[in-house]
């Protein structure tokens, strides 16, 4: 398939990278000066298992790949259980960027980003089981208040959602609230962007729910049955008050007003099932979606498609916007010009050395200023998407 766009030029591919194992999640670090760094998670079901093994006993392996999108190579590779989701803290916690992964053993794995002699590296901080044995942690979200400790919401394959609080020093997670919110997998969860007590959940039972964790968990604030298949993604719009978006296997993107949850404001068709929704950090008219079997699409605020990226030949699960915008006086810039043929296909001769940890070519994104171009600046924006069976990660620009 090729990259196409509705109402504009085709997206330009900046980099193609082979994750080796199936890729299902990718997110840029939002904290300067590390916004050129990207974390990708992979999920591989072991092939040497009996055909009749119960699903909860299947062994699933994964990796976390820290990538430098300026130099287009891998900085670090960490072996884990299969990874279902990764989320960076929206701002530093305890003075350092943190990132959390949800894995197939029902755990949250927390890492901090540090500056080693060889360049940026992830260091383990904490690990906590959040689901029963045999269950998968599926999706997670951060909430960082202006004052007080950070919170995390995580959903799992039993239908439960758990809210945890992070100690001030960023090393200990305490459960604040847990509840079985759905009769089947709780595919997604998230906070109201302005209130860490309000949690949204979506499940394979077709239900979209909202909870106030200060109230009786048996009594959700709302239960909505508008979706015609499982609810797979939810995002509270942090630039537009009271706006929510949800995605579903029913191949629609829903827009909601959280003050009137009986019916959606918009129900926009998108092909393939909307697995992930990412609001642009600055532009109200750019909402990025990972649409599983239908590629990746950028919509406007009403859900109309303005651009489509169809390079992937498998299920698209991961998507995110690059947040480099020159907002800090233009100090943080990296080369985002289209890569040469070798780096565009991921054939970086330094990648193996970096994965092994020698770090000989690791940099912090300070390159040739004559060729530097800001990411997500002016009229252009840069996104990343990743797909499963073809284990392809693409960096592209619209």
Automatic annotation (TrEMBL):
| GO MF annotation: an example | diphthine methylesterase activity
Q: Which GO terms describe its cellular component?
A: cytoplasm
Q: Does the keyword Ribonucleoprotein apply?
A: no
Instruction: Please verify whether the record's keywords include Methyltransferase.
Output: yes
The record's EC number reads 3.1.1.97
Determine the domain of life of the protein's source.
Answer: Eukaryota
Matching entries from SMART domains are given as: WD40 (SM00320)
Which InterPro entries does the UniProt record give? Diphthine_MTase, WD40/YVTN_repeat-like_dom_sf, WD40_repeat_dom_sf, WD40_rpt
Gene Ontology terms: biological process: methylation; protein histidyl modification to diphthamide
Q: Where is the composition biased (Low complexity)?
A: 339-366
Known catalysed reaction(s)? diphthine methyl ester-[translation elongation factor 2] + H2O = diphthine-[translation elongation factor 2] + methanol + H(+)
Q: Could you tell me the keywords of this UniProt record?
A: Hydrolase, Methyltransferase, Repeat, Transferase, WD repeat
Entry-linked SUPFAM superfamilies: WD40 repeat-like (SSF50978)
Report residue spans for region: Disordered: 332-376
Which pathway does it take part in?
Protein modification; peptidyl-diphthamide biosynthesis
Q: Which family does it belong to?
A: Belongs to the DPH7 family.
Matching PANTHER family:
DIPHTHINE METHYLTRANSFERASE
Q: What is this protein called?
A: methylated diphthine methylhydrolase
């Amino acid at each position: 398939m090729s990259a196409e766009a509705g109402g504009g030029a085709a997206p330009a591919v900046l980099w193609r990278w082979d994750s080796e194992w199936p890729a299902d999640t990718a997110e840029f670090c939002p904290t300067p000066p590390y916004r050129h760094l990207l974390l990708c998670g992979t999920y591989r079901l072991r092939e040497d298992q009996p055909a009749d093994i119960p699903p909860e006993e299947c062994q699933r392996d994964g990796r976390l790949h820290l990538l430098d999108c300026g130099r287009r190579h891998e900085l670090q590779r960490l072996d884990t259980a299969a990874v279902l989701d990764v989320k960076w803290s929206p701002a530093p916690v305890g003075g350092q960027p943190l990132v959390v992964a949800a894995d197939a053993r029902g755990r949250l794995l927390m890492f901090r980003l540090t500056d080693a002699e060889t360049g940026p590296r992830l260091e383990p901080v904490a690990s906590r089981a959040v689901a029963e044995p045999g269950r998968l942690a599926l999706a997670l979200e951060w909430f960082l208040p202006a004052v007080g400790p950070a919170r995390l919401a995580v959903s799992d394959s039993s239908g439960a959602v758990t809210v945890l609080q992070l100690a001030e020093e960023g090393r200990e997670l305490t459960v604040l609230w847990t509840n079985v919110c759905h009769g089947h997998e709780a595919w997604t969860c998230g906070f109201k962007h302005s209130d860490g007590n309000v949690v949204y959940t979506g499940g394979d039972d077709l239900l979209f729910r909202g909870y106030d964790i200060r109230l009786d968990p048996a009594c959700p604030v709302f239960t909505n049955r508008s979706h015609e298949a499982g609810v797979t993604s939810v995002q509270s719009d942090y630039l537009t008050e009271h706006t929510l978006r949800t995605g579903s296997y029913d191949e629609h993107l829903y827009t909601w007003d959280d003050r009137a949850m009986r019916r959606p404001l918009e129900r926009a068709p998108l092909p393939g099932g909307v697995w992930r929704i990412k609001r642009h950090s600055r532009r109200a008219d750019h909402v990025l979606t990972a649409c599983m079997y239908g590629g990746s699409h950028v919509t406007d605020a009403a859900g109309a498609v303005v651009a489509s990226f169809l390079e992937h030949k498998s299920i698209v699960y991961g998507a995110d916007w690059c947040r480099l915008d020159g907002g800090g006086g233009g100090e943080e810039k990296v080369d985002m010009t289209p890569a040469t043929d070798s780096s565009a296909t991921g054939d970086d001769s330094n990648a193996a050395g970096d994965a092994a940890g020698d770090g000989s070519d690791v940099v912090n994104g300070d390159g040739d200023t004559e060729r530097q171009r800001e990411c997500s600046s002016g009229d252009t924006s840069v996104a990343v998407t990743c797909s499963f069976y073809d284990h392809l990660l693409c960096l592209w620009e619209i």
